[in-house]
Automatic annotation (TrEMBL):
Co-factor requirement: Zn(2+)
Pathway linked to the protein: Protein modification; protein ubiquitination
Biased composition (Acidic residues): 10-51
Organism: Gossypium hirsutum
Signal sequence interval, chain numbering: none
Name of encoding gene: LOC107890529
Keyword set, alphabetical order: Metal-binding, Repeat, Transferase, Ubl conjugation pathway, Zinc, Zinc-finger
InterPro entries from the UniProt entry: ARIH1-like_UBL (IPR048962), E3_UB_ligase_RBR (IPR031127), IBR_dom (IPR002867), TRIAD_supradom (IPR044066), Znf_RING (IPR001841), Znf_RING/FYVE/PHD (IPR013083)
Designated name of the protein: RBR-type E3 ubiquitin transferase
RING-type domain segment(s): 146-359, 150-194
Record's compositionally biased regions (Low complexity): 541-554
Length: 581
């Protein structure tokens, strides 16, 4: 694994070709949220010799991208879901020569799996009918009498007031309506509704709902049926974004689990949490549990309290004296230092308010509880370091989304008028902000990645912190360009002569930063498997020997895990521009 270098001149020269795409008619960005559909997209391939690359791919810039599997998923809106559901019902109805209602009941029973329905049906039709509740003929003989007695309310009513499922058990319409409405209001279980006769297993299909349920309950039933097509389907899931009604159909084995919905929300198909590359789902679960309130309460208790030797309840020391008294009903008095009975303290322990017992135990190395508390304190400090930076990047990402929305809704048209340009020439600005949002997400999860790196793997930890620091520095450069440097062109009184140069620089920064983050993600997902001491020493050697980096990166005061003494290596995105020149 090598860390390539790209000069600023090369970046600007390469980005000029990208700039032409923004002006041409062939460049299409606003395609319904598909910007990140293929593992961050394919833009910036010309810069694949930048950053982390495999040695054997240096002469073939597109090799690494071409090896990535194409993501196989389809975002479905409500109309698409209905159409697919109707198509499946029609397919089963045609192949098995069944009514639409019977086909619906069958598919619902087999979780909308058409192939499984066909296999089971042709394997043993009679068994399937019995288990599902599809009767070919009524199981009870109904007389030709003009009146019947309802089996629920026992009222004697005219024949026209009765209805029955495929089993033939007659019940009055009023009782049927009450039975159906109660089931629908209880939730999706109404989709598995059976005949009210206790011993009967006949299914109650959508036809009975349409015939007997009020309009409100019909609407609820239809929604339950529609949602079951996604929720019972192993290849489909709802988008977890608040308020989004879209679903995603995923081709199992399609490779990357990152999904981008039409609402622009990105999430992981496997765990439905927001997209979290380069961290795997198991690490995300552990990290989110660590972040939970209960988990941090435990950390705080370990850090700030000791347990009563008698009742084992945690006690916080809120005054200076070592004489502790547990709260009633325990009321046990003990020494805070050695956790022994206070009655044993006095001259023998070095004085009534002294405890040489504790000091002696310390010298013998027997104070295990104190060591555990110290370890818990160190663990808490390490967690705080990584969590603060994780949360900070999340906040920055949310702010970048707000800035992007404000740019699109307020500033883009103004910029067009002031700089006398077209919207197509300003797509580089939107793309830059989208890249900032995505990079903030990736950078955020690198802190969870770093937290769980084994502390004994010093070389890998040092190399990871270096790459993370370079990524953050490059992202800050792009963020500053899109936020601060753009402002003067928005607030200008008229066209500025260097606006085209700014667009070229912004395009280059976006492309190079994008490529760096793509390579960083792939390297971390591979576990930095190519890291060795020699490679790491080449990267870290310029650092000041007087200020070695700690495994958790807490020695410095700079961004992320980087200290102020960190050098600017040639391979980082921040070398593409120097605003001081």
């Amino acid at each position: 694994m090598v860390f390539g270098m790209v000069s600023e001149d090369n970046v600007i020269e390469d980005s000029a070709s990208v700039e032409d795409d923004f002006d041409g008619d062939d460049y299409d960005y606003d395609d319904g949220g598909d910007y990140y559909d293929d593992d961050y997209g394919d833009a910036g391939d010309d810069d694949d010799d930048y950053g982390l690359v495999e040695d054997d791919d240096v002469d073939d810039p597109g090799a690494m991208v071409s090896r990535r599997p194409k993501l196989g998923y389809t975002v479905l809106q409500e109309a698409d879901i209905k159409q697919r559901q109707e198509d499946d019902i029609s397919k089963v109805s045609t192949v098995l020569s069944l009514s639409q209602v019977e086909a619906t009941i069958l598919l619902r029973h087999y979780n909308w799996n058409v192939n499984e329905v066909h296999d089971e049906w042709f394997s043993d039709e009679e068994r399937v009918r019995k288990s599902v509740g599809l009767f070919e003929r009524p199981v009870v003989d109904v007389s030709d009498a003009s009146k019947f007695t309802c089996g629920i309310c026992f009222d004697l009513l005219p024949r026209d007031n009765f209805a029955s499922a495929s089993c033939g058990h007659p019940f009055c319409r009023e009782c049927w309506q009450g039975y159906i409405c109660t089931s629908i209001n209880d939730g999706p279980g109404c989709l598995l509704l059976r005949c009210p006769e206790p011993s009967c297993k006949a299914a109650v299909g959508p036809d009975m709902i349409d015939k007997l349920a009020p309009c409100e309950e019909k609407g609820k039933y239809s929604q339950f049926l529609l949602r079951s097509y996604i929720e019972d389907n192993r290849e489909a899931k709802w988008c977890p974004a608040p308020g989004c009604e879209n679903a995603v159909n995923f081709a199992v084995g399609g490779g990357d689990f990152d999904i981008t919905c039409l609402c622009s929300y990105r999430f992981c198909w496997n765990c439905t949490v927001e997209a979290h590359r380069p961290v795997d789902c198991e690490t995300v679960t552990k990290w989110m549990l660590k972040n939970s309130v209960d988990g941090e309460n435990v950390n705080w208790i370990l850090h700030n309290s000791k347990t009563c030797p008698k009742c084992k309840r945690p006690i916080e020391k809120n005054q200076g004296c070592m004489h502790m008294t547990c709260t009633p009903p325990c009321s046990y008095e003990f020494c805070w230092l050695c956790l022994r009975a206070w009655s044993s303290h006095g001259v023998a322990t070095g004085g009534f308010y002294s405890c040489n017992v504790y000091e002696a135990e310390m010298q013998k190395g027997n104070v295990d509880a104190e060591m555990r508390r110290e370890m818990a304190k160190n663990s808490f400090e390490k967690y705080t370091h990584y969590y603060e930076r994780w949360a900070s990047n999340q906040s920055s990402r949310e702010k970048a989304l707000e800035d992007l929305n404000r740019m699109e809704s307020e500033n883009m048209e103004k910029l067009c008028n002031v700089q006398c340009t077209t919207m197509s020439q300003l797509k580089c600005i939107t793309e830059a902000w989208l890249q900032i949002v995505e990079c903030r997400r990736v950078l955020k999860w690198t802190y969870a990645y770093g937290y769980y790196l084994p502390e004994h793997e010093k070389t890998k930890t040092q190399f990871f912190e270096y790459l993370q620091g370079e990524a953050e520095a490059g992202l800050e450069r792009l963020h500053r360009c899109a936020e601060k440097e753009l402002d003067k062109y928005v607030t200008a009184d008229g066209p500025l002569s260097d606006f085209d140069d700014f667009r070229t620089k912004l395009t280059g920064l976006t492309s190079v930063t994008k490529t760096y983050f793509e390579n960083l993600v792939r390297a971390l997902e591979n576990g930095l498997e190519d890291v060795n001491s020699t490679a790491c020493n080449k990267i870290v050697s310029p650092r000041s020997p007087a200020s070695p980096r700690s495994p958790t990166g807490r020695n410095g005061k700079g961004r992320g895990s980087r200290g102020k003494e960190s050098p600017r290596a040639g391979g980082s995105p921040k070398n593409v521009d120097d605003t001081s020149k």
